[in-house]
Amino acid sequence: MDKFVVRGGNPLLGTIKVSGAKNSALPCMAAAILTEDEVILENIPQVNDIETERKLLTSMGAEVELGYGRAQHRTRIKCAILSDPVAKYEIVKTMRASSLVLGPLIARTGIARVAMPGGCAIGGRPIDLHINGLEAMGATITQDHGYLEARADRLKGAHIVFDKITVTGTEDLLMAATLAEGESVFENCAREPEVTDLAALLIAMGAKIEGAGTGTIRIQGVSKLHGARHRINPDRIEAGTFLIAGAITGGDLNVDCCEPKHLGALITKLEQCGVKIDVGTDHVRVRSGGELKAADITTEEYPGFPTDMQAQYMALATQAEGTSTVIENIFENRFMHVQELIRMGANITISGRTATVRGKTPLQSAAVMCSDLRASASLVLAALVADGETILDRVYHLDRGYEHFEEKLRGVGAQIRRMGDVFGRK
């Protein structure tokens, strides 16, 4: 099992490039189920969740080619025949996005059998929002032995108001509605860039969609979709992680190949912390503005402060003068990194969904355990400023969503190396 060894103390200097967004790529790969034709996706990140999705689609009978060489960030998917419309547990148990194939499978084949989602243990992602929506569109859904089975001759358009904002729920039902009979209107939709990215692909495939990126989406169902070529958005969470890496180390870091307009909430908060920010068309430069200052955050749905940046921001808060309050509104169990930060010398207390971080505290090297994808990133950030050599165990969590993370950081001056060679790199 791979580990990271990180020696702190180096400011990050130079340019670091952002990969494509895993959370856009996964639903876009699932969307290929909706057509018999070939779908080509570019800017696909080389992360473990993408490989899991490839295995999933292949197990259903699809042809999936992940690029190599010059085309290493491109994938070709052709779902001409879906001989086995089942998302098997042994494939999806490590990935939360398994529910994203439910909608397109039933829309395309009339039947879907999908294992309940797995992934990191940061809290529930209620599948009932998917189920209620598909039932409103005419599907019959049963559950047994850890699987959901959905059936429908053809889905019908429906007016659905989501009880709570759900990214995967919005994406799943959006895909299902493209092949439904009649018009669908969804309200209280997620507005995340990943939803807009998926909608752009679906429109390129021939879907009729209006309002993606707003709270209300209208879809006029069509009888058939065709193939398309689409480029995946840059990963805003990876970009945000690198911005904090530059800020926490007091460096001068240019985060390139990103979409600054997707980073508004984080950029505003970093400026409140005293960080100097220069925003370009496709890059953001972060520079030290002197001592970091404490600032509070509350995680919210987009365009608010993202829950996927909460752990990384908390690492930054340990190095800011004053007291920062971190309120987690999205997931009920997303403070699992706190005890590991405390092991490194952080002064953090938790009460319910609120964490209070008192800084500035010197961090010390320690052996720490990664519990989920974003917690892993926060511990790396803390290790970059800790005294001594920190060892991070279970970094497979990080490999699910960050492409060549340690290599990118080494390229801008971090002292970080991988112990073990499970993935063919050191």
UniProtKB/TrEMBL annotation:
It holds the Pfam family EPSP_synthase. The keyword Transcription does not apply. One of its GO terms (biological process) is UDP-N-acetylgalactosamine biosynthetic process. Its EC number is 2.5.1.7. The modification 2-(S-cysteinyl)pyruvic acid O-phosphothioketal is found at residue 120. It catalyses: phosphoenolpyruvate + UDP-N-acetyl-alpha-D-glucosamine = UDP-N-acetyl-3-O-(1-carboxyvinyl)-alpha-D-glucosamine + phosphate. One of its GO terms (cellular component) is cytoplasm. The active site is at residue 120. Phosphoenolpyruvate binds at residues 22-23. Its main location: cytoplasm. Keywords: Cell cycle, Cell division, Cell shape, Cell wall biogenesis/degradation, Cytoplasm, Peptidoglycan synthesis, Pyruvate, Transferase. Residues 6-409 form the Enolpyruvate transferase domain. UDP-N-acetyl-alpha-D-glucosamine binds at residues 96, 125-129, 308, 330. NCBIfam families: murA, PRK09369.1. PANTHER family: UDP-N-ACETYLGLUCOSAMINE 1-CARBOXYVINYLTRANSFERASE. Belongs to the EPSP synthase family. MurA subfamily. This is UDP-N-acetylglucosamine 1-carboxyvinyltransferase. It comes from Tunturiibacter lichenicola. The gene is murA.
